[in-house]
C-alpha cells in the first residue's frame, strides 16, 4: 500500500478497521480531495431490518461510519425495507424467513434508534441520513428492471460470488429470489449515486461480493468509479465473533439490554483483546490506547474499565455510563448491591428455595445446574457462598427489599418481590 493522504483512510488502517478496497489509491485520492475542498465525500452502509436492534457484532462498520462523519464526510444509513423481503444469502445456509409489514416497520424503527446513538442526523452537509430502499423498489417495473439492470450482469460471474458459490459447493438449495440479491444491492448503490452523489459503500468483509456488484454496475452503466471498502470480521482471541455474552447478543438498544450489562461485556473482554477493542469500539486517540495497551498484569484491569466506560458512553450516554461504572465499583470493589444491577421480579422471596432463586434470575438453566455450582462454591447470596442447596430465603436476607445473587465473579443480579 502506497502512502495514504486522506485522514479517513489513515484512521481506518491505524485502528484496525481496514480489510479490502476496490481501489486503494483511487479511494484515498477521492477522500483527500473532498477533505481538502471541504466538500463531503458521501458513503453508505446498509443493513436489512431482520431484527429491531443492532448488537455489538454489527458495530464495526457503524463505527467506521462514525469516523467517516468525524472526518467531514456524509454517511447514508440504508435500511433494506425491500431487500429484507428477499434475504441476503451471504453466509447463510437457507432462505431467510419472510417478515410481515408490521414487523418490518417495527424493526426499521429499532435500527434507526441504534444508528442514532453513533451518528449525528440532521440537515447539515455532513449530517447522516436514513434511507430505505423500499422507497425506490416498491413501484419498480420488473421488465424495465431486467432490461435496464439485468443487461449489465453476467450469470457466469454471479455464480463465482462467494455467497453463491459456497451454497452451491455445499449442495444446498439457493432460490432464484436470493440469487437476485446482488442485483438489488448493486442497484441500491447506483440509486444513491444519482440521488446523493454517493460513491462509496462501507461494510463488513462478508459483503464484498454484493459491494463489487454495485461498483461494476456503476462503471458499466454510468461510467463512474464507485468504491467498496470493507472491515475484517472482528473476533476475540479465541476466534469467536465479537458481540455475544453467555451465548446472548449484546444489544445496542436500551430496552433489550441494560447499560450495566453492556458495560460488563466490555469490562470482561480478555486481556489480549483490550487494545483491539479500544481501537474499534471507542474514540480514544491512538497514543492513549497505546499507553493503556502497555499496562501489564493487574494494571490491565484499569484499561478494561476505561474501555467499558468509553464504549458505554458512546452507546448509552455519559449519565448511564457513569451509573454502570458506579454499580460495577459497588458490586466488585465494595461488595455492595449497586442500584443498576439487573433486577428480576418474583412472586415472593420469603420461603423461596435457593435453587429456584438462581433459576428465576437466569443464572442457572435448571436446579441440577444450581446444585452443581453450589458444590463447586460458585453461587453466592448477598456476597456469601451458598453451601446448603435446601436453604430457603427469609426476611433476614432482604436488604431494602432486595436480595443479591451472584454466579462466579462476573454475574450479579437482584431479586425483588412483585
Write the layout of secondary structure elements.
Elements: H1 7-14, E1 20-21, H2 24-37, E2 42-47, H3 59-70, E3 74-79, H4 101-116, E4 129-132, H5 134-137, H6 142-148, H7 155-158, H8 162-169, H9 176-179, H10 181-196, E5 200-204, H11 208-222, E6 227-231, E7 244-245, E8 248-249, H12 259-267, H13 274-281, H14 286-293, H15 300-316, H16 318-333, E9 343-346, H17 354-360, H18 367-375, E10 379-381, E11 384-385, E12 402-407, E13 411-417
Parallel strand pairs: 2-3, 2-5, 3-4, 5-6, 9-13
Antiparallel strand pairs: 1-6, 7-8, 10-11, 10-12, 12-13
Helix pairs in contact: 10-11, 12-15, 12-16, 13-14, 13-15, 15-16, 17-18
Taking the sheet with the most strands, its summary is: 6 strands, mixed
What's the number of domains? 3
With helices defined by DSSP (H or I, 4 residues minimum), what is the helix count?
Answer: 18
- By CATH, the superfamily of the largest domain comes out as HUPs
Q: And the CATH topology of the largest domain?
A: Rossmann fold
- The overall pLDDT average reads 89
Summarize the amount of helix as a percent range. Answer: 40-55%
Low-confidence stretches: none
The overall strand count is: 13
What is the distance, rounded to the nearest whole angstrom, between the alpha carbons of the first and last residues? 62 Å
**Major sheet: arrangement of strands:** 1-6-5-2-3-4
Q: Classify the beta-strand content into a percent band.
A: 5-15%
Q: Which term fits the overall shape?
A: globular
Oligomer: single chain
State Rg. Answer: 25 Å
Second CATH tier, the architecture of the largest domain: 3-Layer(aba) Sandwich
